[in-house]
Write a structure and sequence with these properties.
Radius of gyration: 19 Å
CATH superfamily of the largest domain: Gcn5-related N-acetyltransferase (GNAT)
Number of helices: 8
Order of helices and strands: HEEEHEHEEHEHHEEEHEHEE
Shape: globular
């Protein structure tokens, strides 16, 4: 079975179902990220699932396959050739998930900035947490984004990122996600321009949310806008009774990792060369917030 012949390049970043011997999976093919992401699966035969996806990744010249599995399935996926890179606390409606990855070549495993990433983490975790001001800076206004904001929001993302794992620089894509499972927050400056944004991607089936898509214009950094956005999105999730929150943050971004550390998230692993972002592949730290009763 070849994923390449069954799922064309036109279907990139569009969920597709793949069936095989002892498994059924919902996947995303991403030429930009050179990976296959498994969104959901049922597998009586983990080896068959991993082999099929691995062959498909090889056909597409991709370097990575990854999925989120219940902890009790970890050993079976390891026997099939995958490695555990991180855990996500509470991912499955309060039960943890383990991120299992299959690397198709040695190059995808190389971490030239590993020492720098560890130094950044050590510096962040050695300092006490800090609390930002309760209000956004004078003249800046935060709100939930709507379809009317899509053009300006896409423009912000286009200015901040030279590449991104998903097409957030396209207004139609942003509107489509707003209409399904993503809540966006934006900050406008006194001139009315969007200068910062972030989102919460809600998984209603598993009752969790990924805090993601953080972007701040360079000239506006240092005002604590990312931390304000995160706190507001956490409030949005509390309204929906989504208690299990996590993120994946660029390992070389001291500022973003500091934001999550400040907000009581715990680092639970690192995804090696997981995303093509800002022009190249980067390691991503996983951070999880301990679920609380809301």
């Amino acid at each position: 079975m070849s994923l390449v012949t069954e799922i064309t390049a036109d279907a990139a970043n569009i969920p597709a179902r793949v069936h095989g011997d002892g498994f059924d999976a919902k996947i995303l093919l991403s030429p930009l990220n050179q990976r296959i992401q498994v969104l959901d699966y049922e597998a009586d035969n983990a080896e068959s699932l991993v082999k099929t996806l691995g062959n498909g990744a090889n056909d597409a010249d991709f370097g990575k396959v990854f999925l989120k599995a219940p902890v009790h399935e970890r050993a079976e996926f390891e026997e099939a050739g995958m490695v555990a890179e991180a855990t996500i606390n509470g991912y499955f409606a309060g039960q943890p998930a383990v991120v299992m990855s299959l690397f198709l070549d040695d190059e995808r495993l190389q971490r030239p900035f590993a020492d720098e990433e560890e130094s950044i983490l050590a510096s962040i975790c050695s300092k006490p947490t800090s609390t930002p001001p309760s209000e956004t800076p004078d003249g800046h206004a935060m709100s939930r984004a709507t379809a009317a904001d899509a053009d300006d929001l896409a423009g912000l993302y286009d200015r901040v990122f030279s590449s991104y794992p998903f097409p957030i620089t396209e207004p139609d894509y942003l509107v489509s996600t707003m209409e399904t499972n993503v809540v966006y927050r934006i900050v406008r400056n006194p001139a009315g321009e969007i200068v910062a944004a972030a989102s919460a991607e809600i998984d209603l089936e598993h009752h969790n949310a990924e805090m993601t898509d953080f972007a701040t214009l360079p000239e506006t950094r240092g005002l604590g806008l990312a931390q304000h956005l995160l706190s507001a999105l956490e409030g949005d999730m509390a309204e929906r009774r989504i208690c299990n929150l996590y993120t994946i943050a660029r390992a070389r971004s001291a500022g973003m990792n500091r934001v999550f550390f400040n907000n009581d998230y715990s680092r639970t692993g690192t995804l090696v060369n997981n995303c093509h972002i800002a022009g190249g592949f980067e390691d991503m730290h996983v951070w999880c917030k301990n679920p609380t009763v809301r």
